[in-house]
Structures are given as structure tokens and as C-alpha cells.
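can u pls check wat happens w/ adenosine-5'-triphosphate
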Amino acid sequence: MGGKVIFTEKPRDSIENIFDRTNEINTIKKVMDTGDWLAILGPRMIGKTSLAKAILNEYKKDYNTLYIDLTGIKNSGDAVNRIFNNVPKNLIDKFKDNFEILGINIMGNSIKFNRKVNNTGIMESLFKLLSKKKTMIVLDEFQELSFGINHFINMLHNIMMENHNIIFIFTGSSIGLMKTLLEQEGKNPLAGRNPVRVVLEPWDRQTAFDYLKSGLTNCNANISEIEINEAINEIGTIAGWLNFYGKRRCIYDHNSALNESIEEAVKVAKYELANIINKSRWKRKALKMMAFGSSYSEILKETKVSTSTLSNFLHKMEKLYLIKNDNRTYYITDNIYRKAIK
Ligand SMILES: Nc1ncnc2c1ncn2[C@@H]1O[C@H](COP(=O)(O)OP(=O)(O)OP(=O)(O)O)[C@@H](O)[C@H]1O
Ligand SMILES: [Mg+2]
């Protein structure tokens, strides 16, 4: 929203340090105030985690707040551990007796189960205990839970039905979230009460310019508007990529900063693309065509999939602002993604 820009590769964790995004923040606050659940979507490095953390910080006076990063979770036991390890110490102390009744022993940073427990059952009990007070929980990289997703979604469903004191905010890989939570095989996983979606789009050029200018001025880099414009031409307008450049440009020259940040960004984008492609040859082909710009019929002809399959895929990609359709030509919007695909 405001404040000075200081380039850092850590997610922001307060609204004062979020540049722009005023509309999104206002929308999210409205959603939070009605008690609805939220999914924050958008391409890699756009600022999903930052926004989720900043929102938690805004509400921590009146809510129990929990940020849980599910990266690298392999099974539901892992998930239980990860969740418990992120429950603030004061709440652990408060509920210690209840945990013991559930068969959970908490010693310092580790938890031990006294008997065989049902992991999702434990999570449900924990969430219900927490929600004696209003509670807001961010589940970041939620798609990583895909192994036991049906049990987990059932649990969320139960919580949603019985309990109006708890708000979940889901973030993570957009494609993954759509697949695991929002559009689960055509079913309606949360009984029609889908989380409200807020999609973070890449900035417009002016906002990206202002972001770089503000941060570079702040670190006393010797800035030139020509260089800032060249950086945006090459890098595009996604906050995280710009931040890569800004951080380096605060330390050394424009060309080195630009080359290094592009290289770094392309590496990250490739991971997300692998997630989207998911080993499908035709999707790989379609993306490649769109990196250069292609029409629907050209893509259809080359990929040889059905029109409904292709339309579905393109629709999803459009919803995430990864591609645009201009004058019947589909193309990849972000420069870094385009470079990564090529
Ligand atoms: N609105 C913003 N203002 C300032 N910095 C931002 C903003 N959005 C993102 N950033 C910066 O960009 C980088 C990426 O942000 P963040 O980690 O929140 O994105 P993400 O969408 O969660 O990324 P990933 O897909 O990798 O999880 C961080 O360095 C963060 O500080
Ligand atoms: Mg993130």
C-alpha cells in the first residue's frame, strides 16, 4: 500500500511494506469481515505469500493467527507436525490439557502421539480448539497436500459447516490450487462454499516503474530512467522478478544485475511451468506456440486434442493471467515465462 520500497527476497509481512495492491487488500478485508474463506491466486513471485502474511498481521489483534507453509509435506503425519509446530506457544500452553486428552504430548518443539491417532481427526480437533476464539489460518502452498486431499477437504467441510469462527486463507501454486481445491474433478469440494478468489495480476508498467524507482532511490543506486525502462522491458512487471533486479542493482551495475536476475527468475518460472505442463506433451507444445503467439486453430491443429480439452486449458491459463488473447492470438503475457518456455 505505501511505505518505502526496500528490496528483500523475503515475503513482506505487513501492509505498510506492500507496494500497491490497495484494491486487492480492500477486497480481502471485506471477505475477511464477512467470515468467508479466501484463495489468493497468481503466478509465481507475484506476492501471494506477502499478501497473506500482511493480512494475518492486520488481524492479529482480534484473531488467533497461524501461518503454515506446507512446502515439502509428504503425508498427513507431516502435515500434523507442521501445523502443530506453527501454533504459537501461548496457544499450545493454553490447550495443553486438551491435547493430552487427544493423546498428544507436547514437549518443547516436538510433539508425540501417545496412541495411534487419526491425523485428520487430530487436525480437526486442533482447529476446533483454536476456534474458541476467532481464528485465521493461512495454508501456504496448499497444493502440496494433494496426497490426502480428500480427507483434508472433508475435514475442512466439517469445520466450515459447524464453525463460523475460523477463516482459512489458501495460497500457493495457482494451477495446483485450482486442481486440488477449487475445481476438484468437477466436484464441488466445499459444498458450494468455495473460497472467494483474489487473483494477483502482474502490475501495469507505471506501477512497476514506480516500484523500482522507489527502491533504487532508497538504496542510493545511481539510477537512470532508461535503465529502469530496459529492466521492465526485459523482466516484465511481476514484483518478485523486479525485486531480484532491484536488490542486485542496489549493489552493482545495471547489466550484471539485469542478466543475473533474468537467469534467476527463469529458473523459478521453469518449476512452475513444469507444474502446469505436468508431463503432458500437448500442453508443452501449446505453451511453446503461445510463447511466440498463436491462434486457437493453430494450437488445436498442432496439439491434436479435443476442442473442449484445449478450451478448458486456455481458459484456466487466462484466468491466471498467464496468457492473453488479443485479436485471436494467444500469447504468454510475462516476459520471464516467455523466456523460460523458449
Ligand atoms: N506488493 C509488493 N510490494 C513489495 N514487494 C513485493 C510485493 N509483492 C511481492 N513482493 C516481493 O516479491 C517477492 C515475491 O513475493 P512472495 O514470496 O510474496 O510471492 P509469492 O507469490 O508467494 O511467490 P511464490 O510463488 O514463489 O510462492 C518477495 O521478495 C516480496 O518481498
Ligand atoms: Mg509464496
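The pocket of adenosine-5'-triphosphate (ligand 1) is lined by residues 8-9, 11-12, 18-21, 44-50, 239-240, 243 (CB under 6 Å).
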